[in-house]
Amino acid sequence: MTTTETFGDVTGTVGGDHVAEVEMHRPPANFFDARLLSGVVEAVDWSAGAGARAVVLCSEGRHFCAGLDFGATDKPEPEALADLYRSARQLVDSPVPLVAAVQGSAIGGGLGLALAADFRVAAPSSRFAANFARLGFHQGFGISLTLPAVIGRQRALELLTTGRRIEGPEALGMGLCDRLADDPRSGARVLAAELAGSAPLAVRSIRRTLRGELVDGFSAMVDHEMTEQLRLMETADFREGIAASMARRPAEFKDQ
Questions:
Q1: What is the arithmetic mean of pLDDT over 207-226?
Q2: pLDDT for res 74
Q3: Left if phi > 0, otherwise alpha if psi is -120 to 50, otherwise beta: which for 190?
Q4: How far apart are CA 145 and CA 112, in angstroms?
Q5: Phi, then psi, of 92 in degrees rounded to 5
Q6: Is the pLDDT of residue 127 over 90?
Q7: Residue 55 domain-assigned?
Q8: Residue 167's domain is classified under what CATH number?
């Protein structure tokens, strides 16, 4: 038996195999805001309550998630950013394991969303980028903790300061994704089914042991990231970074 509920632009579906899909519906890029992420959190919590033992986090359209839409607004208001990161805190402390199915791109905050999951399954053509420095500001969504946790501090420093994009095979090699599949959603369901086949009490205990430090430090890190983001969003370099990105041209940063 399959059960489905809707939470704004997010749907949750739980099947009889104890695997759920939580799907975002803002194609093609699935830009997020506080409302979308709140729907994701609600759908994950509902899925756990409906018997899911693992959740596939996925999205409709060409790309997994491109983070905030800076083409729609110059910069988010502090209150909106705080609401967004409140949902991020809840997501990283989800009651069941999350497997992100990354088709297309996971860019900026979208990479942060993928990293909030326990595991990531991507296609060989999938692209990942922490492009914050290229836009003239600081990373957010807890990436300062989650990215070093999966690829190491030195590689994280390189990706964050260069903003370069990497594709599926390189991401797999450095641990940024856990598996490659031509169809990431199908591949994520396979992994989620393996998780759901393990003893739920044991899985919860293991997650608390291995993710406890991450969960405990996440709130403080997100607060620090938000402070730095808001500070740098007032700079001329941030305005130039966004303008250059929208115009698809190299940025001319002035260190101011």
A1: 96
A2: 65
A3: alpha
A4: 10
A5: -70, -20
A6: yes
A7: yes
A8: 3.90.226.10
